Amino acid sequence: GDSVTQMEGPVTLSEEAFLTINCTYTATGYPSLFWYVQYPGEGLQLLLKATKADDKGSNKGFEATYRKETTSFHLEKGSVQVSDSAVYFCALRDPGGYNKLIFGAGTRLAVHP
Amino acid sequence: DTEVTQTPKHLVMGMTNKKSLKCEQHMGHRAMYWYKQKAKKPPELMFVYSYEKLSINESVPSRFSPECPNSSLLNLHLHALQPEDSALYLCASSQQGQLLNEKLFFGSGTQLSVL
Question: Whole-number mean pLDDT of chain A?
């Protein structure tokens, strides 16, 4: 079945450092891809998405490009802030419908001043 | 109003108790979801309702019983749970459930502990 693999965390960075969180997927066809963020004690929020190959999703300084050749959707940010500390989930939409999302294991990011 | 509201935020129950989790949204969404998230794990889909009808049951044990009394409300009735059912239960909603690339709106969850 379809699956998502994320780099293991935690990722610890200093403020203003460059962030990359790797995400690769296995799927039949070309699913839509998402990054969700979960702040402590909260639910998940959609950070960005891409619906087809070569699409770039972006939001709040975060970017990810849908790479069909490498089946990847890596999350990047040029300069992280302490407020970016959270758990980041890569996900794909199951093609079976009903908006079923398949999540990766999540990567915890800790940003220190 | 773009919120999904879940109550209670925290719940502690014994294995013989019966309790219910409640989820509410007023965005006019017709699809609502229950996800279960164990500590340090990703969310896993449990149920999907679309237009108040159960559309997906991901082989969830019968001790979890969902109910969608109307398009704004989603309940999860709990009975005879096990300690391994302790988790964060997340509710979500989306426009219809079947449109491509619908955005899911998540609530902040109910943290459930089963003793």
Answer: 93
On the question of a cis peptide bond just before residue A10, with omega within 30 degrees of 0, the verdict is yes
All residues at 6 or more sequence positions from A100 whose CB lies less than 8 Å from its CB, including other chains: A93, A94, B45, B48, B56
Q: What is the pLDDT of residues B61-72, one digit of tens each?
A: 999 999 999 999
Backbone CA torsion sign across B99, A62, B39, A8: positive
Nearest residue on chain A to B103, alpha-carbon basis: A46
Shortest Cα–Cα distance, B17 to chain A (Å): 25
Under a CB-based contact definition with an 8 Å cutoff, are residues B108 and B9 in contact?
A: yes
Quick: pLDDT tens for B78-114. 999 999 999 999 999 998 877 666 788 999 999 999 9
Give the three-class secondary structure for A84: helix
Task: Return the pLDDT at A9.
Answer: 85
Interface of B with A (CB under 8 A): 4, 6, 31, 33, 40-45, 48, 50, 55-56, 90, 92, 94, 97-104, 106-109
| Whether the predicted pLDDT of A60 surpasses 90 | yes
Tell me the sheet residues that pair with A73.
Answer: none
pLDDT digits (tens, 9 = 90+) for B49-63: 999 999 999 999 999
Q: Give the integer Cα–Cα distance in Å for B17 and B80.
A: 6
A89 touches B at CB < 8 Å:
yes
Show residues of chain A in contact with B94, CB under 8 Å.
99
Answer whether B15's CB lies under 8 Å from B80's CB: yes
**Spatial separation of the C-alpha atoms in residues B94 and B102, rounded to whole Å:** 6
